[in-house]
Amino acid sequence: MDTGITSKTPITLLGLGDMGTALAHSWLAAGHPLTVWNRTREKAEPLVRGGARAADTAAEAVASAAGPVVLCLLDDDSVGETLDGADLNGKDVVNLTTGTPAQAGRRARWVNERGARFLDGGIMAVPPMIGRPETGGYVFYSGDRELFDRHREALEVPAGAEFVGEDPGHAALHDIALLSAMTGMLAGITHAFALVSREKDLDLARFAGLLAEWLGAMAGSSQEMAAQLVSGDYTEGVTSNLAMMTAGNDALLATARDQGVDSRLLVPYMELMRHRVAQGHGDEGLAGLVSLLPAAH
Ligand code: FVH
């Protein structure tokens, strides 16, 4: 006989956009009692048919929460608006809304002042990856370690969980750092396709495979950079030195010119390389470039 009683952690989820809805389905499928709330109520209906309870207001959803209150909203402002008026005292708040490290820090203080514990999360997955561990999606978490440990099993249902420290801003920092690296990589991919795409007899699908393999192999250089930053010796274990790479940039720029391609995506990074070599550090790897980036405030 199905008594409807389960030992699974009850989840309260505020926000049913594309990501929130994917999270909701994964918790329902895993048998977690689920209460949902969304500003536009209709988005809750399919989940209610699947066994979730829809709360009329965010405050009511929070008041009835016996487990973590998870937020997956557009931005930090929408988190503030949604929680405004809710009694957070004694609650565990898990914010999966993308924001900056500073916003996470401020939100943690705001939540703590209202008597609740706070965990921030940065989702490294797109909705179709949620509830499918084989896709490798995961969430960076930071903030209250006890909260994380207590709800870890439930938090690991939608995607893997990677705790990166008690500073509430560190999940967002990891998230943004990875997205920033991705942006640089996509700029490189864009330039590479601009170079080859005007060649009529070139197989772009084959090229794409070669490109992905090359980027995968080169990604290992991040370990070399980390080791150099930790030791402070930027010449440690250098396999390709900066002077050689900077000289090679001339061929990259000349080829772009010959192919009629604008080099604007590459030039800022190349200028940084040239500057470091001019400072007398041609024997280093790339770690020295990090020291050139602190912005003037
Ligand atoms: N979707 C993705 O690929 C990325 C993957 C990485 C992580 N992001 C972040 O996840 C947060 C939510 O993303 P989403 O995909 O669910 O976003 P939307 O489909 O646009 O849904 C937005 C939800 O936020 C609600 N909302 C917006 N403004 C307010 C407000 N002022 N008060 C209350 N709720 C608000 C919106 O409600 P409604 O429009 O349906 O009424 C949606 O529930 C996000 O931080 C991504 O960066 C996703």
Q: What is the tally of helical segments?
A: 11
Q: How much helicity do the residues have?
A: 40-55%
The biggest beta sheet reads: 8 strands, mixed
Give the distinct bound molecules: ligand FVH
Q: What is the 3D shape?
A: elongated
Secondary-structure-based class equals: alpha/beta
Care to describe what's here?
This protein is 46% helix and 12% strand. With 297 residues, it is of the alpha/beta class. Strands 3-2-1-4-5-6-7-8 form an 8-stranded mixed β-sheet, sandwiched between helices. Helix 10 (242-258) runs antiparallel to helix 11 (267-278). It is elongated. It starts with 10 loop residues before the first strand and ends in a 19-residue tail after the last helix. 32% of the residues are buried. The structure holds ligand FVH. Ligand FVH binds next to helix 1 and helix 4. The site of ligand FVH has 21 residues, from helix 1 and helix 4.
Write the layout of secondary structure elements.
Layout: E1 11-14, H1 18-29, E2 34-37, H2 45-49, E3 53-54, H3 58-63, E4 69-71, H4 76-83, E5 92-95, H5 101-113, E6 117-124, E7 138-143, H6 145-155, E8 160-163, H7 170-196, H8 204-218, H9 221-231, H10 242-258, H11 267-278
Parallel strand pairs: 1-2, 1-4, 2-3, 4-5, 5-6, 7-8
Antiparallel strand pairs: 6-7
Helix pairs in contact: 10-11
The structure holds ligand FVH.
Key features of this structure:
eight-stranded mixed beta sheet; 8 strands; single chain; 297 residues; binds ligand FVH; alpha/beta; 46% helix
